[in-house]
Description:
single chain; mainly alpha; Cytochrome C Oxidase, Chain A; 2 domains
Amino acid sequence: MSTSTIEKTVHKGNASGGGLARRQNFLTGLVGGIIFAWLFWWIARLVGDQSSRSFSDLTATSVTLGWLFGFWLGIGALNGPFRWLIGRDQTREDQLYYAGENLGVSRYWKFTTDHKVVGVQYIVMTMVLLGAGGILAMAIRTNLITPGNHFVNQQVYNSFISMHGMLMILGMIVAVAGPWANFVVPIMVGARDMAFPRLNALSLWTLVAAAALLLTTLAVGGLPVGWVILAPITNQAGVGMDFFAMAIVVFTVSTTVAGVNTLATVVKMRTKGMTFTRLPIFVWGSIIAAALGLYAFPYFLLAEVLQLMDRNFQTSFYVASGGGTGWLQANLFWMMGHPEVYVILLPAVGAIFEIAAVMSRKPVFSYKTAVGGMVALAGLSILVWAHHMFTTGWAPTLGGPFMLTTELISIPTGIFFLVLIATMWRGNVWFRLPTLWVYGFIFDFVIGGVTGIYLSDIPIDNQFHGTMFVTAHFHYVFAGSVLFGAVAALAFWYPKVTGRFLNETMGRISFGLTFIGIQVTFISMFLSGLKGMPRRYSSYSMLFEHTNFITTIGGYTIMAGMLVLLAAVITSWKHGEASGPNPWHANSLEWMVPTPVPLENFDVLPVITEDPYNFAEKVDH
């Protein structure tokens, strides 16, 4: 049979596949979610006591459950399970349709199982989350540009703080792991897809549903409790608290599904010869982060489930008058909260290692040491959560041990940082856009890491914990380090996604604005903290006027840099310089397949005989 005949046969078969899914997309998901949210609201009104506060909480929780079920139903996430239940599982034609075969751009708006499409959908979702969080950051900084400014009132300001923080955290969690653990990890290990393609699509669209709930919180009264969303103050919050709690529950479902899928893909679907000692460093960062997330995020889910039970069913897990305690929620939250930092950081570190080796034309210096450092970092991260509670009075006798574990965590961090420097040291560095963001990562990570060591000591933390010094520290870790790692990964793998380079000129302008903005914003914030300025306040003393004005100007500069980057991503997609399949002359498998990548990645699965960093000779760039 000729090639053209085969293509016509596949196209014809695909045209007959899909069934109901042919009429389902993001729009039908929205409609389904809204209809079922209304239906569950109506049912809650029938069974609830309209005269009591529990009615509003029960109604809000019911609406969120209806939204999730209806969105899943409308987008097509439940088609497969329903067909299996009635004994009519998917055919080959159905599978091709769900994979997006011959669907063009429309596949990005549908429940699509191809891991590469899911990776692109995660890129868009990351930009939405970080964009929304960035807009709120600008609102916060505008309110703080001068003392006594009333751009928004205290309650709205508190809601902005809550939403900005959580949107940025969720966005950073998926900023590297979402797009690239989906798009490149299966190809890197020589697999034709993720281990569970339908669960992969489910994780993405569940994240979309969670983000919608989180953003809706602002429309139903917000969260006027500030960043620390803990009892007992949360017991007094309005129905926005119910929307927030359910958003976290739904998000945890998404990350759990994604984490299991990543681990199963790497452990069970590696091609012949792809031993664990030949895995690219980015794969190691992805699976360590996935395993750590499977440990950490259920604590957050449990914390919010108990919160919902207190609010909806009058239990008293966090209510002191009923025998409960807010310490329970605080410990559950921070048992998630510090490992979560490394769930965010490790994929970015893995991507930075990948870029550093390729752009330096050198093997990763002491590969096993780098992997060991990441494993040790993940292990220690589960033993340090209580340093967030040094100033609260909880279990003061445990302060010493937690201070020790927090200081110890700087050792594996320093180890893999030194390995990164040694990898680039005296290399024939190709100074392209990804390399520039790598250098920014290194600079900012040093500042974020060193300032964290001060906060691990109880006497110093007692002075700094409630000040802007802490805010500056963790923003250097997230905005200064993880964000730079995410943009470096985007610039590095953008040619594999699109077949075009990310615009070099616009990328460099974006880097310059963002890098300068980071230093201006957070160094001045350190100065505010050293002067004693408390965080989370909507106004402040004249003593902090100048540093806050400088911080706000720096924040605007960061936003300008991100807008230039967004313009570069959009314009380069169609009009960027053509890159070819392997523009960086890399050795890992994702660069060995054509661009655009075929549906099943490989016609014949490759056999691996060496690690991906065996650069036989330096290339003069």
